[in-house]
Write a structure and sequence with these properties.
- It is a single chain.
- By secondary structure, the protein is α+β, with helices and mostly antiparallel strands.
- The protein contains five helices and ten strands.
- The protein has an eight-stranded antiparallel beta barrel with strand order 1-3-2-10-5-8-7-4, surrounded by four helices.
- The termini are close together.
């Protein structure tokens, strides 16, 4: 096992067959910290599971939400880990992760180190709308640099119902500057089409991570 890390996950690593993303409302900073420990506990003792690559846990800056991003070589490897009891006793309140695959994106500030994450999600009707909404953004308003926007990586859910924009920022101030600019309006216009509905996204910081 490797030690816990404080760097953002490499979402473009070629050995990642699936990204398991779990957004969770917990309510308080104290419960955020408890959830971070709960998520990472199975990976902190003993050998890492077969097929596991990384797990990164982010906490929202308003102190209420937790976002987990886990990379595995395949969904089958993750399901085998769960089936074999790797996550402990089953809990009926456990949130099932959304399965995503990286589609495309842009690194806009090579060399910059992100410290803030914004992860907007779109609810979409099928794979055509997944691709069209992403292409419109990457080839449009999110394809050109903006101060402090390190990278924007778009994921498509395997069931064809969601798009995740994994947007990495130098810091929170950079994202605040973006929100005051004309870019959000341009992004909204780029995805305004039948079958695409924005759900929104919160701002996060990395709490901790474990990986190979």
């Amino acid at each position: 096992m490797t030690a816990a890390r404080t760097r953002f996950p490499d979402v473009s690593r070629t050995d990642a067959g699936v990204a398991l993303v779990t957004p969770l409302y917990v309510g308080t900073p104290e419960l955020q910290r408890a959830e971070v420990e709960r998520v990472l506990a199975p990976y902190r003792s003993g050998p890492l599971p077969e097929g596991f690559l990384s797990v990164s846990v982010f906490t929202s800056t308003e102190g209420e939400n937790v976002l987990t991003y886990a990379q595995w070589t395949s969904d089958e490897a993750y399901r085998a880990f769960v089936r074999d009891g790797g996550l402990g006793e089953p809990d009926e309140n456990t949130t099932e992760p959304v399965r995503y695959k990286l589609y495309r994106g842009r690194v806009l500030e090579p060399g910059s180190v992100p410290t803030a994450l914004v992860a907007p999600v779109f609810d979409v009707d099928g794979r055509d709308r997944q691709r069209r909404s992403i292409d419109n953004l990457v080839d449009g308003p999110l394809g050109t640099p903006f101060p402090g926007l390190v990278a924007s990586h778009f994921h498509m859910s395997l069931d064809g119902t969601r798009v995740l924009n994994w947007a990495e920022w130098v810091d929170e101030a950079a994202h605040e500057g973006f929100m005051k600019s004309s870019r959000p309006k341009e992004c909204l216009e780029a995805i305004t089409m039948p079958g695409v509905r924005g759900i929104g996204g919160k701002r996060y910081v990395l709490a901790d991570a474990v990986g190979r």
